[in-house]
Amino acid sequence: MNIHLEKLEEKDAKALFYFETINREFFETLVPGREENYYIYEHFLSVLNELLQEQKEGKSFFYLIKNDSNAIVGRINLVDIDQEQRIGSIGYRIGEAFLKQGIATKALKLILEETPILNVAEIHAKTTYQNIGSQKVLEHNGFEFDVSREGPNFVHYVWKARIKFW
Asked: What is the pLDDT of residues 90-118, one digit of tens each?
């Protein structure tokens, strides 16, 4: 499947809310669930506006993963960016109907190619121990196991840019 990334915008609210709602149960089998209010549209809009403000300030970048029909098939976010250290954290989620098509691997590769533009040289990631698929996606894209951040609930990874771009 061909995919592309689009930066999150206010116009995406309804489609993103639908994507999150129909995939809620599935996502909650892989990662801790969101608060109940998240699934009330008015509250969701409030959260969306906060995210868009973070994006405007360069603290985080939120992307929708879309297919050739422009349908949302997933999300990928580069968040908590320390602009001085050029370090951020990555998170992604693929809709249940779109699993096992290489979408997460492709989307992560696309965002890693944007790191010079986003001014990020190191990215941290974590996944639950049971989410082997996500671990494979990270490793396939050059993330390495980060033993310094080992914890009881998550596997931690780190990616470092191979080329200095500043």
From this structure: 999 999 999 999 999 999 999 999 999 99
Q: Which residues contact 164 (CB under 8 A, 6 or more apart)?
A: 121
- The confidence band for 79, taking pLDDT boundaries of 50, 70 and 90, is very high
DSSP per-residue letters across the chain: --EEEEE--GGGHHHHHHHHHHTHHHHHTTSPPPPGGGGSHHHHHHHHHHHHHHHHTTS-EEEEEEETT--EEEEEEEEEEETTTTEEEEEEEE-GGGTTSSHHHHHHHHHHHTHHHHT--EEEEEEETT-HHHHHHHHHTT-EE-GGG--SSEEEEEEE-SS---
103, 65 in Cβ contact below 8 A? yes
Query: pLDDT digits over 132-150, tens only?
Result: 999 999 999 999 998 777 7
